[in-house]
Amino acid sequence: MHPEYHDTKVTCGCGNSFETRSTRKELKVDICNMCHPFYTGKLKFVDTAGRIEKFKNKFAAAGYASLKKGKKAKAEK
Questions:
Q1: Residue pLDDT, tens place only, 26-48
Q2: N or C: at which end does the chain have fewer Cβ atoms within 10 angstroms?
Q3: How many CB atoms lie within 10 A of CB 17?
């Protein structure tokens, strides 16, 4: 009823490999903790500051559309 549980060799595209346990005997992965930018400290941040400011400026005066609809509906009654 239960699948067999094996010692599994996991191999990354960067060449790193490690042992774990799984129902498969071998796993191949594209990225691991040795080559992922978050874990290696080589994470590059996209300059989002300009985008955030542009978004805030665009929608600052607009307000919430749902609140405006509610006020119009109450005024019409």
A1: 999 999 988 888 878 777 766 66
A2: N
A3: 15
Q: Read off the DSSP letter of residue 4.
A: P
Can you tell me whether residue 51 is helix, strand or coil? Answer: helix
The pair of three-digit structure tokens given for residue 16, joined into one six-digit string: 């790193």
Q: What is the CA angle 30-36-40, rounded to 5?
A: 150
Bridge partners of 8? 20
Cα distance between the two ends of the chain: 66
Which tokens hold the place of 50?
């300009």
Q: Which amino acid is at 73?
A: A
Residue 65 has pLDDT above 70, yes or no: no
